[in-house]
Each structure stands twice: as C-alpha cells, then as structure tokens.
Amino acid sequence: MSHSTAAKDPAAAPSEAKAKPLSPVPFMSLALEQQDIDAAVSVLHSGILRQGSRCSELETRFAEASGATHGLTCCNGTTALQLAYGALLSPGDEVLVPAWTYIATASMIVAAGCKPIFCDVREDTFQIDIEDAEKRLTPKTTAIAATHLYGMPVDIDAVQDLAKRKGLAVIYDAAQAHLATYKGKGIGAFGDANTYSFYATKNLATGEGGMVTVNDQTLADRIAALRSHGETEKYLHTSIGFNYRMNDITAAIGCSRLDRLAAQTQARRTNADRYDAMLSEIDGLEPPTRTEHADSAWHLYTGKMDLSKFSCTRDEFCAKLKERGVPTAIHYPRSVTRQPAFAEFVMDHPRVADSLSERVFCLPMHHDLTEGHFEAIRMALETLGIRMR
C-alpha cells in the first residue's frame, strides 16, 4: 500500500473556506424520541416511581440481549462496579486492572478496601495485556477486572484462561460495550460479573443508570441484597449494604431505547468499517485493531497517530480538525497510574498506557452519521495536508 509523504503541518492546510462544512459534525446522537418520553410520562402518571416492574423488565431484556442469565439494575455504572466488587472481593485483596481505562474501574477497587495492581495494555487493541498481568500476580491476587474498552471486547479467552489457571474471579467492566459479542455470544455469557453504565452518552442511555449481569443465582442474590441495605426479607438485613436502586422512570426510558439498540449498534458497526477504510489510507493514522473473534459495540471510534509522521502534536491536530467542523475527544489524556488519587498504589507507569495518552483520538461515532458527515470528515482531513489514496 502506498501512502502520501507530504508534510503533515496543520499550518500549511489549504483554504479553510473551501473545506469547512456548513455545520459541525455531531460527535454524538443523544436526543430522546417521542416513545422514550411517553414511556417516562407513563410511569409518572402511574405514581409508582420507585424500582418496580419497569426495572424488572429492563433487567430481563438487557440480560437476555447480553447473553447473561440475571440482570440487576442500579443507579449508575460506578455503583454497578461497586456492587460486583463488593460481592466478589474481600478487603485486602489485590486485583489486576488495566492502566488504560476510565478511573471508576480502578477507584471502586480501592473503595472496596482492595489494592489495584496496574497492568499494561496492548498496543494494537488497547485492551489489557494478559502476559503483563500474569507477571504481576502475587499470592494476594484474587481477581482480574478487565475493561471492554471503547466497546471492543478484550481477548476473553486469554482472560478466562489466566483466571482458571490462577483461581481468579473475573469482573468485566462493560460500561461502553452494550451488545458487544465474543465468538458469537453476548459478552454477558463470560466471567463472574459484567457491569454496564447507562449514562447519558452511552449507547443505551437513560441519563444515569447501570446494571450488573451475572450467571449464578447465589451471586445475583448477594448483589441484590448489597444493592438494597443488605435486605433479604422485609426489614431483615443480613449484611451491610447500600441504596443503589434504579427507579422506574429511568428504567422505562431504558426499555424504550432498548427497542432500537440492536439496529443502532449495527449502524455503528457499519460506520466503523467506513472509518477503518478512511484511516487506512492516511499515512500516520491507524484505525483501531479489532480483537479476534469479537464484534465491538463501537461506543467510541478511537484512532491512533504515529507522531513521527506529523509535524504537530495530537492535540494540535485535533484542534485543527475542530476548526474545520469535526469534533474529537481524547479518551484518555492520561493513564490511570498518572492520576494523583492512585499515587500510593503505583509501582511503575506501564509503557504502552503512557504512550497512548499522547497518540489516541476519538472521531464522531453514532448511529446517525450520514454520507454528508463522512464527506465533511474526509474534507477536513484533506485540509490538514493529508492526501487520501
């Protein structure tokens, strides 16, 4: 494959007036549809606002769509992690966790009284590097928390093999991976627990909200009790717990939007294929590598820069794209080990995770991207002096 060797200097871009689109490309598509509003209003009219039948419906339907046996709604994705960790870990445990993830994956390990053991990630897929993780095992290691980052499943076979050989519990942070699959199965079929976020920007968005899915009845009962003050019968509390319940207004929105999620996910996959082709033709830009046997939910489309091919930084490159109507986002501007909150737990700064913080960028990704949007993105790239084959 041949590539342009033209200098990648944003200052040398052609006339902005020629390439700038009439309006910015929307980075996300977040609007509720009328049926979502009607679903929420119906609950308001009922007067039953607490966790009820709509929460139960969302639990059943989402668990089934995800390949899991049991679903337990909760108030957000962070509490979903806290519930899973609380049910599977004990204070003092050490937990393997990627250094390249959102902070909640690691911070809730600390909140559980456990120690995060930060592992490097793969240069190609951005997912946890299982070889590096295995080198960091100690006699106190009891679990691995692996993120399906950006919606792309981790190498689940590798995670499960390590867990089986070393007797580890497995918690998958699937906050960005609604309806992702691995070897033809929903990711909820794997591991001890999967946690999801329904935050306002997620593929299935309810404003706030979350869920834990599991495949073991005893574990489901434990999480259900932990979610509601350790209560196993009315006013009988067999353990300390929390109030992390969802409400039926939130769940009604989730049920309504779930009706469209499969079709929207397929649209995201089609858009990702188009981005792959586009970035593959640009010297110095790399599309994300896909985990073998996996089908991503494409919550984010995250490209990577080879900075040696450019005369600008990643941030300068993204700023110029924004000027031309193409917004970007950086997930994330630093690895978790560079967060001051974890200073006492950091033994080293994993090399790949640190490097990614300077090179990755996310392009607009959602189900409503149009031909015009993709043309605007292509034109914006060309104005930065990047010739597409």
What's the gist of this structure?
The chain has twelve helices and 15 strands. By secondary structure, the chain is α/β, with parallel strands linked by helices.
Description:
This protein is α/β, with parallel strands linked by helices. It folds into two domains: 144 residues, Aspartate Aminotransferase, domain 1; 223 residues, Type I PLP-dependent aspartate aminotransferase-like (Major domain) (Aspartate Aminotransferase, domain 2, 3-Layer(aba) Sandwich), CATH 3.40.640. Helices cover 37% and strands 15% of the residues. The protein has twelve helices and 15 strands. Strand 6 and strand 7 form a beta hairpin. Helix 3 runs parallel beside helix 9 and helix 4 crosses helix 8. The longest helix has 33 residues. The radius of gyration is 22 Å and the shape is globular. The N terminus is likely disordered.
